[in-house]
Amino acid sequence: MKLKDIIQSENPTDQISLLQSGRNHPIPDAEQAKKALDPKLHDINDPIKRKDKQVRVDADAESDSAKKVIDSNGEAVATRTEKVARIAVAIQKLIISRAVSFVFGNPVEYNATPTNEQEQAVLYAVKRILKDVKTNSLNRKIARAIFGFKECAEYWYPVPKEHGKYGFKSKFKLRCAILSPAFGDTLYPYFDDSGDMVAFSRSYSHKDNKGVSTSYFETFTDEEHWLWRTNGGGVGAQLVEGYPKPVAIGKIPVIYGYQEKFETEDVDKLIDRLETLLSNFADTNDYHASPKIFCTGQINGWAKKGESGAVIEGEPGATMQYVSWANAPEAVKLEIETLMRLIYTITQTPDISFDAVKGLGAISGLALKLLFMDAHLKVQDKMEIFDDFLQRRANVLLAYVAQFNTQLATACDELEVEPEVTPYILTSEIDDLNYWLTANGGKPVISQEESVEKAGLSGDAKMTMQKINEQTTRENSFMVGEPQLEIDA
């Protein structure tokens, strides 16, 4: 589809405005996302929302930090600023990291059933492209951006370079760029009335060596690639020379992913409360952690520091006693534990800290699956995002392979590649193997060559298998027939 089929206006400013209006959901608040992920930006560190204390001091005492103010009675008093405790915890970052690890802790499998050599060549090329762009890290970066900033996109583009890494000679290598609000991009997917994305745009800024910033607006359709530039100074957007460029693959080379809420949006207030409790408790500890003595009456003499069998003298009726808390620490502890439990429960995040798991001991694979069931259910919810995302990625790669090697175009159209995500879990391979052996009636479930390959101890599984077969042949060799004895008649 060409841009003129989507937007009738020829004015660049009007075109950009209309492309920006095609979103079916609001633009995420990138500043709110950064605030949640950076503990330094939490409310607990805001001196306006959590003010330092002003402590009254002796007006006659000279201090560099003391200042005189007028109190409510109109009297001049001296005060100094007492810094309050500010304890910020990076729980939002932890929740997102755990979610990313459970979704993409295991490599994504791209399943296909090639029916001929050409389809096998296509599958090899797709997997080699994914390996070259380090797809395991790419998937984790994409998930982290979506969970933290609601949305992310990846842009696949060819760069001129002759090579044969894809199983055939090619003049191009395929590269992938991540587009995210975390990196300063504003994304504008354009959806038609049926909900299909017919165009994708992004705006971004670039500074040159002199520090001059230039704004860009970039748009992709399945046929065209547009780029406008705004230099400022009252000059409107202008089309960059050489654009629009054709999109050879017949698909939008951008894959877009979105979720409705920030990953920690439902627990941000609980985390704020937790930080307030911890900070207040720290302030209380600063004042009351050391023992304090409350005296009544006149004390005439104090014992010396470290004196054994010390005697303190006082007038008749004088008393002394330690000032101690009653139930305050237990109440604070209960609220902190409740908040932590709610934060983990609402976000479906398992508590796998050392203190939480050190008492579990050796547990079976089934018990582990039950322990992490909530986290795995969360992964299944995330498949509403990544099923479409990964499938579209596979389709875009197939389209590029068809362009790089036109002889494989038919095979690229016919081969079906289906991505499969396996939630991460620590499992016992012995438990899994025994399960499948039982299901198979005690017979082997994989060939010897496959077991050698999966063991990963050999750099060349086929060569290792050949040596094993040769060794087995030598061990099983024997002399055919017995030497015959001649018997005289």
In brief:
By secondary structure, this protein is an alpha+beta fold.
Name some characteristics of this structure.
489 residues; alpha+beta; 4 domains; six-stranded antiparallel sheet; three-stranded antiparallel sheet; 21% strand
* Integer count of domains: 4
What integer is the average pLDDT? 85
The number of distinct helices, counting runs of at least 4 residues, comes to 15
Low-pLDDT sequence parts: none
* N- to C-terminal distance: 101 Å
What is the general shape? flat
**Total beta strand runs:** 18
Q: Summarize the biggest pleated sheet.
A: 6 strands, antiparallel
Structural class, by secondary structure, is alpha+beta
Backbone CA Rg: 35 Å
The proportion of strand residues reads 15-25%
Work out the helicity level: 25-40%
